[in-house]
Structure formats: C-alpha cells, structure tokens
Known about the structure:
By secondary structure, the protein is an alpha+beta fold. The protein is built from ten helices and 49 strands. The protein is globular.
Amino acid sequence: xxxxxxxxxxxxxxxxxxxxxxxxxxxxxxxxxxxxxxxxxxxxxxxxxxxxxxxxxxxxxxxxxxxxxxxxxxxxxxxxxxxxxxxxxxxxxxxxxxxxxxxxxxxxxxxxxxxxxxxxxxxxxxxxxxxxxxxxxxxxxxxxxxxxxxxxxxxxxxxxxxxxxxxxxxxxxxxxxxxxxxxxxxxxxxxxxxxxxxxxxxxxxxxxxxxxxxxxxxxxxxxxxxxxxxxxxxxxxxxxxxxxxxxxxxxxxxxxxxxxxxxxxxxxxxxxxxxxxxxxxxxxxxxxxxxxxxxxxxxxxxxxxxxxxxxxxxxxxxxxxxxxxxxxxxxxxxxxxxxxxxxxxxxxxxxxxxxxxxxxxxxxxxxxxxxxxxxxxxxxxxxxxxxxxxxxxxxxxxxxxxxxxxxxxxxxxxxxxxxxxxxxxxxxxxxxxxxxxxxxxxxxxxxxxxxxxxxxxxxxxxxxxxxxxxxxxxxxxxxxxxxxxxxxxxxxxxxxxxxxxxxxxxxxxxxxxxxxxxxxxxxxxxxxxxxxxxxxxxxxxxxxxxxxxxxxxxxxxxxxxxxxxxxxxxxxxxxxxxxxxxxxxxxxxxxxxxxxxxxxxxxxxxxxxxxxxxxxxxxxxxxxxxxxxxxxxxxxxxxxxxxxxxxxxxxxxxxxxxxxxxxxxxxxxxxxxxxxxxxxxxxxxxxxxxxxxxxxxxxxxxxxxxxxxxxxxxxxxxxxxxxxxxxxxxxxxxxxxxxxxxxxxxxxxxxxxxxxxx
Length: 758
C-alpha cells in the first residue's frame, strides 16, 4: 500500500473516531439533561425554561397544545403553560377541566388591554408608588417579564420577574392527591426599585371561570353563614361583586364611616357580616367538577372576591387577593380637623401567601362537598377540635346598667343573682333543664365599666359572694353560667386608659363612637394589654371556683396599630390574641362570640353565629355553609331570638342549620333601660318569653337527641323548594319555608314547618 493510500485510510479512521466521539458526547449530555430534569433543576433557554418531557394527554385538552402535563394524581392531571403562567386541571375520569386563564377561543374581545391582559395571566400584581399614587396592574401580558420554571415532583416552581418595576415573586404550584396548593414563599417576594412597591397579589384569579351563562353552577362566598352566586347570565345587572376582607375591617388603617342613625340613637343601616372563614368556592354542576379554596397563610391580609358576569367583564370568577401594603390618611398636624395626606404603609406583609384548593368531582362537586372538605381540613390541621355537643338552650341575662344622675351615674339593676335563681326555678317548672346563661353586666360598675381586670361583681346584683354561690349552686342543677367579658374595649369615662389604648397606624387614637345615652366613645386596648387583663380576670375568677367565661371583642377584631413609633401588623395582633386566649383556655371553659377561624380551636361553643347573609343583591341563594361544616363538631348558638322580626323563619333556619337558640332576658321591665346605653334593647322581660323559651327547648332538644353527635352528610334544596338535610346517622330533616305543603316521595311537610324522617 503506497503512502498516499495509507494517509487517506488514516484520515477516514480519524473522522470516524471523531464522529463516534461526538455521538458518545451527545448521548452523555442527553443523559445528564434527563437526570437534571428528574432532579427538578431548570433548563434555561433565553427568558424561558423548556417544557417538561411528560406527554400531553389529549381528550378535553386536545386544543390546548400550549399546555404541558407537569403532574398527575390518581384523579387529576395538572397542565402548565409558561408564557402566561397558566394552569389547567383535568379530571382523569370525566375529562372535565378547570382553567386558570381565559383562552383565546373564549375571549369575547369586548375588553380593553388591561382587562384582557389580566384575564389571560395566571398572576396579577397591583403596584403602588411611594408618592401614594396607585400605578399599574401588571401581569404576564401587559408588562415585560422574565420567567424561570423549575419542575418538581408534584408540579412547578416559577420565578417571575418584572424588571421595569423591580418586582419578582416565586410561585410554587403542587398537585397533592385531590388538592392543588399554590404558595408564594415570603422570601421570594422582592421589591428592588426605590419608590415602587407591591400593593396586591392575585394568583389564578380566573381559576374555574365561566362566560356569561354558558355553564350551570355557582360561586360560594363566605358572607354570613354562606351564600351562592349563580353562574347564569346576569344581563349586566350588577356593577360589582363580593369583596370581603378576611376577619373584618382593619380599623388601624381604615377610617370608619359613622353608622347612619335615627335621632342619633337608633341604627338605620345594618352592617355587613364580617368574613369569619377564609374560604371561597366554584362549582360547575353539569361537568361535576368544583373546588373549595382555603387561604392557608396570608389570610390576615387577604380579601375574598367573587364577581358575577357583567361586573366589569362578562366572566364569572372568584379568588383570593393578598394585600401586601395599604394606604392610610396621615394627619398633617395635631389638630382634630387637620388636613391629611394619603400615605403608604412603611412595611409590607411578611408571610407566605398560600391557597389550598380542595378539588371535588362527581357527587361532591357542590357546596356540601365543599363543607365536608373544609370540615376535614380543619380537623386534620388541628384548627378545630370536637367538643361536647350536649344540647342547651341559651338564656342570657343583663345584670346592671347605668344612667346619668346628678353629677355622675347611678346603677340600674335589671337581673340580680336572686332573680336569676328564680328564673331558673320557673324554667324548671316549664320542663327546661340544662340552661346555658351568659351573665352580661355582672361586673362592678355594670355592663360598660370596661375593661374588666378582676372578678368583682356589682353590689346591686348581690355582690361577688352571691354571684359565686349562684354559679356553683346552679352548676349542680345542670345550669351553666358564664361571665361575659369584652376583653378589647375601654370606657375612658370609668377607667384610666392613657397609656394602654390602641393607636392607629397614623398615631391617632382609635375611637369607637356608639351614640350612647351615657357613654359615647370607647377605645380599644393594645393587644398585649388586653391579654394581661384577660389573664388577671381569669386568675381571680378561678381562685373563687368560677371557671366559665364568654369572651368577645378580641374574638372578632383584628387590626394594625402603632406604639412608641413602632408599627405592629395584623399578624402581630393575631399572634397576641391567640396567645392570650390559649393561656386562659388552660384554666377556663370558653364560649367565643362570633370568632374568627384562627380561634375556633379554643371554643367550647360559638355564640351569635349568623344564620343568614348580608342580603346583597347579587346573592342568589343563602346556604348554611358554616353550619354544615361545624355541626357535629362544636355547638353553635344563634343571635338573640328576641330581636328577630320573622320568628317563624328564624326558627326554621335553626332547624335547618342544627343551631341552638339564644334568648336575652331581664327580670325587670326593659323600660328601665330607656336612659342607659342599652336603650336600644326592647322586649327583654323574662315573663314575656317564658312560654317561647319552653317551646323552643322542647322542639330543638328533641331534634338534637335524634341527631346526636352526627355531622351533616348532605344538604339539598329540592326543585319544589323543600330543604332536605341528611345526617351521618341516617336522620333526615325536611324544612318547608313556603306557604304551601310540599312533598318529597312519601313525605309531606306542612307550610312553614319541618318534619323528621329516616
């Protein structure tokens, strides 16, 4: 072989070796990439991250070629579309789908760029400028953004940046069995441009959206006991929908509008119900797919919103909006009439922002399924505990009020300890046993001598000795008396409060104007001081053998405040209230008045729970959602029957909800209260309600005995209007709110009545 031939052969071998080496290198690189992908590491290309290698399932999502399967459980698949940060949830058995953004096919092209951008983005962020001027609502379509997606075992983690605003957040989306968990870690929230801040964050605000009346179903809102907004075509009747700040208004930031009154004494407008539970829901009843959203963290600064079609846009949607910063009016001088400047909070909310979506299908894709999911969540997480469910009729009494007299005030005794003993004796003769009583105005100085710092009863009801003896004696008879304690309010007329009252974020003292006959203005205690007073009262009462307290004030208020130049958030206040109640709960039996969810675990029973809603125009149906959740777990007591205009409907509401009745009575005639702060209370005298109390006790006690400790397993509003409530032990209760007899199968229920079956 000549030299030339050898050279050619050598070159061929070299080239073949090079090619083989390249093939090996390519294989190694591919293997590394696969391993890296399996370890949830990102694979970056430009501003985006390559999609997961999991296959796209066809069927109902066939047209969603942009979506990629990123997680799968036994019942659901989770798909993801990175450019819009959009997700799609598919039921594996039925193919029913919940989308988080409006698809191009469902865009009605009626909206401006801002709304269109929000509709087609999985996240929307409201920004605010240091100049106190609200600026943009930014999303994945109307603002320059960069997104990096990391694939996890259960979904994705996306880092989303808006460089023009210096804002970035990280969002973790995980499919965990039948739950979707969306979490924005606190440490991932960045504000890096001076003077531009995050105002609100709304993740997946269109999850499960529908257009006009194209699909049947409803949205659940946490108004009162619960209410539904149907997905039917609203024909543009409503300009807005429901928006409720969880746990009520933050009075430390918000200027309270004075209540409308008649003759400066009587309220003419009823306040809306506060949001006690951070939940919302969406149900597509034809497709039998639904979810219950639970705000799991960040709830102290979250707003629950549900907007029917026609409210700005023609899409039904419900979601949680997190308020990271707010604005308030800062007075420019110490004058009471000083001008104010709108000011941005100096610091933002520091908390993870988490929404847990309980996914529901089939027979559970409705508000009853949502109630069962919420009940199980509360039990599993220890946010509620099963309590003694023994039936008791609640008969509260008013002890002492005060009216003006010469240069001061004088006592107006309404129910003494001896008179309460007589009331119990009369109730026993009527067959009413095991009464629960909250004693209002027992303390020295009467009902509005606040705060209460020690166990000392007013002399005009018999003093501490008589009250203690009554409590202990009646306990042996099966009647339980609780000391009523507003642990939050301060009456500056009767107590020195200079250094203990709450100041708003703008450093002005918060004032609660009540338009009272004797006392006009009350203040709130700082949370730590409220806790100290509560502990002091508890300790002194327990020493006397009194271990029952009905707590209000701190149970339903949550606010930001300032102290010595420092700012304290609602998170701080919540933590202090929880610590205070938890400490007292170790030694006392506690009833909590209309409590927020974070205190439910400490309640032996809940008082003054709403039976209805705020009756907003856009509400289509009231449902006893909270009662469906709580029945069989913790006793709940209604608001006072005395003050209900339609007592028949109110009674049937209690039958339907499994709630226990409440009465507020006095031994003396209520006309004696005309010159006191309780002048708005009327028709209180026990003699007028003896027979009604006995009737309610007979009927509702009999129902409670049939139901026992069972939870509610189903609640239906039948097509003819009859309400059917089914319990775990098989008991069925029918309630007829109409003026005609109604039937279900072989069961006929008279007008405005109820019937118990199996």
